[in-house]
Backbone:
């Protein structure tokens, strides 16, 4: 089955992810793909403490994620991919990872970003990256929690 949903969320793993999304999507593995965090053992250890019983968690860099997906390592799992920026998803897709849909979670209104919704603000580069995902026929939605209605997003 593999990737069920990919979410762009600056906070990556947090209460809404482990308590609401995991249950709603019946997740078996959380996959945080972040080149910088994947080398920080202290942050990785604290993130792993938040995972619900019965689920796995990978906190790996983009290259390792591509290698593992292409090797079929997660074929029998329901994987929820979490990234900080849409550029990471482009790299995954170009590396052969199938991403069925992207949810824009929380992107803070900082560093020159312009608000799109209450929880999503984008800069020009992020908007361009989302346009690339659209061109690759990946549906983009905004859905803060699984009980909210999905709102299609057009970059």
Residues:
């Amino acid at each position: 089955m593999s990737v069920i949903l990919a979410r762009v969320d600056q906070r990556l793993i947090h209460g809404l992810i482990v308590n609401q999304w995991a249950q709603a999507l019946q997740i078996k593995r959380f996959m945080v793909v972040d080149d910088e965090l994947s080398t920080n053992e202290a942050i990785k250890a604290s993130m792993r403490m938040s995972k619900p019983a019965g689920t796995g968690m990978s906190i790996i860099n983009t290259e390792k994620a591509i290698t593992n997906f292409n090797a079929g390592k997660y074929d029998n799992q329901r994987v929820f991919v979490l990234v900080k920026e849409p550029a990471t998803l482009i790299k995954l897709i170009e590396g052969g990872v199938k991403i069925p849909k992207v949810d824009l979670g929380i992107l803070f209104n900082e560093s020159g970003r312009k608000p799109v919704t209450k929880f999503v603000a984008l800069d020009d580069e992020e908007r361009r990256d989302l346009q690339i995902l659209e061109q690759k026929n990946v549906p983009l939605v905004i859905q803060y929690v699984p009980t909210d209605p999905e709102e299609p997003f057009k970059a």
Q: What stands out?
A: The chain has one domain: 2-152. The CA atoms of residues 2 and 78 lie 5 Å apart.
